[in-house]
Amino acid sequence: MLKMSTLFLRTLRDDPADAEVASHKLLVRAGYVRRIAAGIYSWLPLGVITLRNVERVIREEMDNAGFQEVNFPALLPREAYETTNRWEEYGPSLFRLQDRKGGDYLLGPTHEEMFTLMVKGEYSSYKDLPLSIYQIQTKFRDEARPRSGIIRGREFVMKDSYSFDLDDAGLEVSYQNHRDAYVKTFDRLGMKYNIVKAVSGAMGGSKSEEFLAPCSTGEDTYVLCPQCGFAANVEAMVTKVDAQDSSKVPAVEAFDSPNTPTIDTLVELLNSKFGGGYTGAHTLKNVMLMADNKAVCVLVPGDREVDLKRFQENLGGIHELRVFEDADFAKFPALVKGYIGPQDAKKSGITVYADPRIAPGSSWVTGANQKDRHARNVVNGRDFTPDAYVEAAEVRAGDACPECATPVVIDRAIEIGHIFQLGRKYAEALNLTVLDHNGKSQIVTMGSYGIGVTRAVAAIAEQTHDEIGLNWPAELAPAKVHIVAAGKDDLLFETAFKLGTDLEAQGISVMLDDRRDASPGVKFKDAELIGNPIIVVVGKALAEGNVEVRVRKSGEKKEVALSSAVAAITDLLK
RNA sequence: CGGGGCGUAGCGUAGUGGCUAGCGCGCCUGCUUUGGGAGCAGGAGAUCGGGAGUUCGAAUCUCCCCGCCCCGACCA
């Protein structure tokens, strides 16, 4: 029984000045966590209990799915990460350190290498596969900007699993098993979430999905189709635009367009010159970018910005992508800034990518590659030809769902899980092979699957809190029942303690506010702030032999006879 | 890394060159009080983030450094 009289806990009346999001404010105020440094938190008793509860649920679901738990150190030698090139590729986000002999070490940000090597050390036959193993362990990433309390920390707890299969069909099954296990896990954690398509990005591999917990303070933006349920991270949103018939489009017509530095001013000129009907969506924007120090041009409709992250993810294999600067323009004198068109890009040897909205046969107003000159009736496929189509334009609410063309909605969320079909990238680099049934050596194919455990605690707090405090699902709360002894009679305290003992005998965890010096008001506020699902008040109703049972979430309260309290509470917790 | 804000007791804060750095919460002692963050009285607790400088005098002005928060870049 957690007794408040001795519990290592101090709640705060005021929001901490350095907290912005609700989960951060409340977890600090209710005495669950304390900040140590940016993105680094210590956990107090209530926080530890809650975190362990979340871990327990995850562990049980992983075990139920047949995955086996292992554990790696956080402190790792450089070697394996050198082999996969991630010692370099991971960049400044990797915590690197040296031992006394000058040997290089790192604090593990994720453990693909170590898991691969562990399996390599034990297994060498296809008969041993499939295999899925996992750990729940502290990870370290030197984030450029830790934020939102424990939602994005530099040290955090993650559950990471890895699957090992002989072939793609096997990987598909392992992936699906993890997906199913995640659905069960997040359902049990009481979370609202969407499973969305994602781009595999730096991890490589073919297929990837994210589990996103909708939440206004989340950092991830995703699209959702209200009609068919299609959901995707904005990076993975697909634009479907059909080819257009351009046979009736007149020839390219260049015209003078002085003082039209922006799309808006250009549209204004077009409407006065050609009798209206033009919008930004009729213009073609030629955005010059530097991709790993190679100039590229990306075409998007004039009314949309280039989403650099989206373009980079879909282009793949690019480490640094940035917009053109004046110094870059200086290297390409043929490019007339503000009047670039795709017609002459080939002459400059620049690769031209087009967003799919620039459909074959579509006709555009764009730069004429001369100062103060634009051109209209510039047709894709006739007057210019993109080298490739790559999703690049910003995604907007109302864009067409790629499955059913219904306008999509856009929402924000916290990424709580991510599952990847990695393929053979790590197995190949570290030479993880098994002999197949023909005695032939085969490279193993892998999947990796993560759940942010500490982040889940914060995400659940975000989704379940209300104005007065935290509000945990019963399975995760520090205690299922919070008994408040409201009064000063010894009998009342004895009764409250007895009730706690009776509840615990039924396997129901109990927190007891047995502080003699705290007023009832303080105890009520603390109980509501801490967020256990059932609050039982042993107070003035005791004169009639009753206690008051409250449901934290609904605020519903009722008096029940002390003698039937355990039964009533058991019932409520079902 | 770019932009913005901030750093005064455990927490929240006042104090823009001048007396002993003020207040609220929390903490300690005593009395009173006990169904919505009680009251009265007394008390402890601060190298004002650090260093250098300007000045008769610096929490306050200047410079350097450190740290924290927010927006962006970044983020298996």
Describe this structure in words.
It is a single chain. The chain is of the alpha+beta class and 574 residues long. The chain folds into three domains: 51-71 and 108-234 and 410-462, 2-Layer Sandwich (BirA Bifunctional Protein, domain 2), CATH 3.30.930; 253-389, YbaK protein, CATH 3.90.960; 481-573, Anticodon-binding domain (Rossmann fold, 3-Layer(aba) Sandwich). Helix content is 26%, strand content 28%. Strand 15 (284-291) and strand 16 form a beta hairpin. The chain binds one RNA strand of 76 nucleotides through helix 13.
How is the secondary structure organized here?
Blueprint (H helix, E strand, L loop, with lengths): L1 E2 L18 H8 L3 E5 L2 E4 L1 H20 L3 E2 L5 E3 L1 H5 L2 H4 L5 E4 L5 E4 L4 H11 L8 E10 L14 E11 L2 H21 L5 E4 L10 E7 L5 E5 L6 E3 L19 E4 L6 H12 L9 E8 L2 E8 L6 H8 L5 E3 L2 H6 L19 E4 L8 E8 L2 E7 L8 E2 L19 E15 L1 H5 L3 E3 L5 E3 L1 E8 H12 L16 E5 L4 H16 L4 E4 L6 H11 L3 E5 L7 E6 L5 E5 L3 H9 L1
Parallel strand pairs: 1-27, 4-8, 16-18, 18-21, 26-27, 26-28
Antiparallel strand pairs: 2-3, 5-7, 6-7, 8-9, 9-25, 10-11, 11-22, 12-13, 12-22, 14-20, 15-16, 15-17, 19-20, 22-25, 23-24, 28-29, 29-30
Helix pairs in contact: 1-11, 2-6, 2-11
The protein binds one RNA strand of 76 nucleotides through helix 13.
What key phrases describe this protein's structure?
about 575 residues, alpha+beta, BirA Bifunctional Protein, domain 2, YbaK protein, about 25% helix, RNA-binding
